[in-house]
Design a protein that fits this description.
Distance between the termini: 43 Å
Number of strands: 9
Number of helices: 7
Radius of gyration: 23 Å
Low-confidence stretches: none
Strand order of the largest sheet: 6-7-8-9
Order of helices and strands: EHEHEHEHEHHEEEEH
Amino acid sequence: MGGIPVAVVSSDDKFEFCMKLGAKGCINRKKFSHWGMLPHWKDTAAYGEWLKGARAFGAALWEVLGERRNPRLVFEHPGEDTVPTSIFVCDTGGMVVICAGTSGYNAVVDLRYLWMRQKRFQGSHFANDDQAKALNDLVSAGKVDPCLSETFTFEQIAHVHQLMYENLPLAPTWQGHSLTSQYRPNRAYFYGSADEYLLGVRDGDFKYILNLTRERDELYDLGSDPTEQKNIAHTQRDKTNELRGRTAAWLRSQIGRQ
């Protein structure tokens, strides 16, 4: 669609992961100190300091792009701490989309940048039931590439909330590769630990899963069966045994890192 994504993250170690997902470049927001609610415009000293920081952040965007070009679309999540800067750096006629308020709900803006530059501040709350199902269908069909480090059951919601509250990092061995992206490596190993313990590998169009809970091999040809409906492990024994051996070797290497 012609968009050039730029990721704003909280640490440099997230850069590589974002770049693999297609970001043009990344900015570490911790390198700027002007975040927070917008100072009152009558407090010229405080407002001047904020403006200096917002302009420096805008310059960082230009540096990533290699030209003095402001974003037409800004996806906002933190809310209170970042909305003033998002609206400031957004291009004339552009839009800031807000879907949350993790740093607070009182988003103060300088209205001059809205009316004089014809910018829009748009709320978004994802989807209703029908739209959520439509998105799941797109994921199942391989047309949308979800980026997940782990999946959980409904009963684990409390545990997941605790992980988010503590802001726990990804495991050091998490590769950051999608199994469905066109940019994926030719071979990628994975594991899952929700209702069942799963290990596996994607090798080209083949996806092998070792279900340790059910003691079962699964093999799918994602080229012809992207939604994994037909388990061909019993008819492709040579390929199944090959990928089972590779998965076992990968598991031993991971254990050796502990």
